[in-house]
Predict the 3D structure of the following.
Amino acid sequence: MRVGVATLAITISGVATLASAGANADSLNAAPAHVDETRFSSEREAVMWRQQELKDIESLMRQLRFDLVNNQDAQSAKPRLKELKERASADNLMPAFIAGTHGPGSDARPELWEEWERFGAGFHDMEQHIDTLIEAANAGEYRAAAKALSDTGRSCKSCHRQYRYD
């Protein structure tokens, strides 16, 4: 099933994400071999979408640092924490890494597909840090939230160092 970028699913919280047709636990087993196995209409669309999605997640992390570390305001952070959990998930992002989409215009290194299981494990690690972050914020434990936010950022950076051209 293919879905164009203009097709959005709006969640109850108002978070806009692409409809997740075909994204499930199987997305960790192997990279999509062809665009027809994804929700995208072209490889270029997948590359452009994932690049923008990752930029948006980076911005979201900065906003959460302001909410939780600077202002110690867990209430303001709640919708952003929910958005982070949805957008920074393997189910949301991994389908956009179609095999062979590492050429011109892509920041991804070809090693990403050679080490697909390890790449997926990085998402699992990040998702665990996000869960810890949400738990700490919900409990009003701002030191623990700051640590979990830093751990989440380190998880992102670790993957970027290995699998992204600068």
